[in-house]
Amino acid sequence: MEFSEALETTWNFFRGGGFFMILLGICSLVGLTVILLKSISLKRSRIVPDELGREVERFAEHLEAGTLGNLQNEFAREENSLSRLCAVALGNVGKTQGEVQEAVQSSAREEIVRMNAGMSVLDVIITISPLLGLLGTASGLVTAFSDLEDNERIRAGIATALSTTIVGIAITVPAVIAQGVFSRKIELFSARLEVLLGRVVSACHQHVFFRDKS
User: What's the burial of 129, exposed, middle or buried (CB within 10 Å: 0-12/13-18/19+)?
Assistant: First the structure.
């Protein structure tokens, strides 16, 4: 009985928000979907796997020892951002260091755009959710004060005003937190990729240079 009463209270709360609550519900659904998808796409294993990162740090050693076979196979599979970018670097070996860096940087920009996919949607959710809540508040107050002799109308207006404000803020807060977390992860991954790719490009250039000299 208590559960059914709680369910009814919750339903009445959301129903009291009227049309604006429907819009807020859509915002909530979209926001949760984006957060879930970004949590999956920004896993370390999809960007810079720890084990592969450690091997790339030793890229110069592998290059000198002629033991790049396993790494090249890993790069060829292109299962993560690091392997795709390293494949680009190796595919341009023989060109000048500037040309290789330009090719890698172009691909890196594409990877960063991919990592940022969906962040603009979170920006929109963060912006419009509180605004929809305020619109619901304004609409509810207009309804409440349009006829001060109608108690039922006043209650409905106040219910709309309060519920939409609460829901609008409730949607915005987790979206802001998620945006901050994702932005930080993208920043860290970008910096890590830059360091590792710099080592790959430098090692390839030095190896070709000394081979030509000899």
Answer: buried
pLDDT, tens digit only, all 214 positions of the chain: 466 666 666 666 666 667 788 889 899 999 999 999 999 999 999 999 999 999 888 888 877 777 777 888 888 888 899 999 999 888 887 777 778 888 888 999 999 999 999 999 999 999 999 999 888 888 777 776 776 666 677 776 776 777 888 889 999 999 999 999 999 999 999 999 999 998 888 887 775 433 444 4
Q: Position 208: which residue type? A: V
If you ran DSSP here, which 8-state letter would residue 150 be given? -
Cα distance between residue 111 and residue 117, in whole Å: 10
Site of tokens 């710099």? 198
Give the pTM.
0.82
What are the structure tokens assigned to 17, written together? Answer: 């928000």
**Inter-residue long-range contacts of 77-81, CB under 8 Å, 24+ positions, other chains counted:** 80/45, 80/46, 80/47, 80/48, 80/49, 80/52, 81/46, 81/47, 81/48, 81/111, 81/114, 81/115, 81/189, 81/193
CB 90 within 8 A of CB 72: yes
* Domain residue spans of the chain: 2-213
Beta-carbon contacts of residue 21 (< 8 Å; ≥ 6 apart)? 14, 15, 136, 163, 164, 167
What residues form DSSP beta bridges with 40?
none
- Kindly report the backbone phi and psi dihedral angles of residue 107, in degrees, each rounded to the nearest multiple of 5, phi listed first: -70, -35
